[in-house]
């Protein structure tokens, strides 16, 4: 070591070294630093012998300027003339006044720096390949053989290290690499040899240096690289230096040595890579453009990152350790890097990749690169070298028909079959709302629904689907959902080539609203899809428990720093989006505010910052209020009546049987949100079979006391077919119309088509067949809630162009009210508060809502009153609602049906049911087609047979019934029954009720329909918010699913989501 005199020459390394007592490594004049290398080279060139070169370089290792140790590099010249860096050692005494202080906490880095310095000089002849270093005394290094250039040929120095030293070595490798920069090494050189000035440095040399130390990927250009996989001895020894760098992510690069390790045929990692590649290609959609090595590296070689469950810091594991959900759930810093434990007795250096177990401490901060990854402004996802895939995603059993990599999952590390018990909640976690339904026994009952009779519903033109970017597996086999024990109604993802199921999503394509929310993912969707599919699957597997970000991260298994990014940023956003949209964390689930908003990141806090008044506590109002409450908003629900439910009104007065005076049937249970609520409450769904025998009243009337048999199957089918054919003719007719053609009524069109049929076919219909036609028309009037003479022939079935709910129809024998009260549990609902005025002048910052007795103020108001109420003017708007909205309200119809429930002293109808749930009655004339054409056998909530029948009045008969007393209406029902059961005694009822929805001021209707002249767009118009402060929900605002509890419920979720982001604070934060 030859101390040099101090000099003012900026090129003097010692001078700059002594000046350089700085906080961070990067503070060292990096652009000058490379310029020092030629001088260094001359210095070594001039060595001549080992003696001369001895003590060429000394580093002093400082931690925050506290001197720790010094490292001296020594050189040797072998007999054959080759020059070697033989040893790096701590000088015996730290008495060198001229040494250089560098503020780098790890000795390893200093040794790396020496290596780079020397390597820069020697590599033309004897490139140093790797350095594995120990700060405590010695360094091992190997140099390339000049003939073969194979690494690890010469072990120049191999001091024996204690296990402690090994541990220290590895720990240092795990240390934050924040301050590491290979520009910033400081060396002492002989001042005499230091002749070159900065100007003399050639561009070429500059280029060589940059090549070795920076990433070439455009947009990255990261400098001061370290290899993120360190797969070989050579790599570890040469860290920071490579002839080429490969980009994995903005904070992860691997060196050429590691690349070669897997890529070159002779190398040891090659077989492993090729085996992996073969397996991947077999099971994936990968094509010629597949970045196989890059994918292999990120699938198998990067280390996993895991977050300490105590301090939240991120720690990396050694790359031979597999991450599992259990590790994620239990990881703490003291578990360290989870390296496979080292066999001390056998700790020779053959396998330097085996490292000792390193412990971290919670007080240790995140590495700088982790901090960088957590910066939301960093375009991390756009800068990934190749797509990362989730391993062992719980979504896999739902997606068996797809190539795993097409839906964001690893093509190799993916498990298709899973058991529900892995995911579902403990009994203790299950929501147990109070009330009646807790007493309900959970037995299933077989039943059938009349609405299966909606034979007129055409399923031809379903689904508005996006085009696929690929990723489908073309398999002739029907892919199965492979989760043992899963509710068959839960089908969140389409199978390949499947279409037309409501609330079903493509696992391989983003939905439109997702693309709007996450435009940055639109071009390359895979990672988004992986997370979304994971979130939706986890929710589907266990909808009784709030799905938090930590639940998701337990299953978000992938290598590399991308896991840090996803768990901390992207997955959180996707989870929040899905929660806001009511895709997950919905139904009867109550999100505790502390969980909902903050710690678990289910929702951003900013949603909560507003007060919302919801008008109406029917399905739409309750759904919205629950969501908004879960979001953390202050919600008050104003309900005119003294009860919940609106047009859901369960009557329990008939011997404890639940008879819905309003809604009681779910049409299509697959993905139905109310089927989900049933699951959450452990209320089983009761499947209804389509069978409905029809009894001909004419025959009955003439054959008194004779056994009445049902209409023959042949005749029934024939008329069924005929009626559907008439509807198809109307579809063809309207398709042929000009855009501006005038609408006409469906009733009129059906009659016209029927007459035309007769004319053209020359076929005559029998009297019975004509009466059967009336039955079908009556049934359709029931479905529309109106006489077909009022219904639009153009648009009566407008919602059929959208995917509709499929699967079983079920009779909710415990009542929709049971579900609604569970959803509403804990909400602030003020009963007997009919709203009279809503004042939302622009000059006011709040909306004022007046009831007869109170005035409320809110930031937003959600109006869910029935269309008929809205139209009636019983709520005054100041200023009035926009004319377009009012016009649409008038273009839709407010349909009505009424019900009767009858309790008999005994059951007398079993002989006519034969296992079915209902029977039909063929009306004598067209005028009677709305009076009780179908009778339902209503079971007890537990599923047993009861003594209660229920039936419906529809079409024009609703108006006729208005003028009748309840008893007169009952008599009509009894006379129908006595006709059908003419062979036996029909007893006088014990009790009964008749509904009067039409006259109820807070309903005035049953459900909406498209009136002649109206269209589906009117639903959308009514749903539009006004002035950013008035919002509208309810069945009459749901174009896709009008008329139903399901539609009302979903409109509530829709508006809650809208309101959440209409919040001013949200807008400004978006
Ligand atoms: C007889 C009948 C049978 C039906 N059968 C079925 C079926 O089997 N399956 C099915 O899915 N659907 C069925 N429906 C339709 C279903 O009930 C409705 O689509 C659904 O209830 C609509 O929910 P909503 O929240 O939009 O309105 P509603 O349920 O009507 O709720 C609106 C709420 O607003 C309140 N309100 C009204 N005015 C005011 C005011 N001024 N101030 C404060 N509050 C006010 C009302 O009291 C009510 O609680 C049936 C309906 C009827 C009437
Ligand atoms: Zn490497
Ligand atoms: Zn890069
Ligand atoms: Zn910790």
Number of strands: 36
Helix content: 25-40%
Termini separation (Å)? 61 Å
Q: How many individual helices?
A: 33
> What would you report as the Rg, rounded to the nearest angstrom?
38 Å
What is the averaged pLDDT score? 78
Task: Estimate the strand proportion.
Answer: 5-15%
Class by SSE composition? alpha/beta
Q: What general form does the structure show?
A: elongated
Ligands bound to this protein structure: flavin-adenine dinucleotide, zinc ion
Low-confidence stretches: 1-111, 113-197, 343-347, 433-472, 595-599
Task: Offer a few descriptive terms.
1070 residues, alpha/beta, six-stranded mixed beta sheet, five-stranded parallel beta sheet, 36 strands, binds flavin-adenine dinucleotide, binds zinc ion
Written account of the structure:
It is a single chain. The protein has 1070 residues and is of the alpha/beta class. Helices cover 31% and strands 15% of the residues. The protein has a six-stranded mixed beta sheet with strand order 21-31-32-33-30-34, sandwiched between helices. The protein has a five-stranded parallel beta sheet with strand order 23-16-15-27-36, covered by helices on one side. Helix 19 (619-631) links the parallel strand 15 (611-615) and strand 16. Helix 3 crosses helix 5 and helix 9 (256-263) packs across helix 10 (269-282). The longest helix is centred in the last third of the chain and has 23 residues, at 713-735. The protein is elongated and about 105 Å long. It starts with 12 loop residues before the first helix and ends with a helix. Bound molecules: flavin-adenine dinucleotide (FAD) and zinc ion (3 copies). One zinc ion is lined by residues 215, 217, 220, 222, 247, 253.
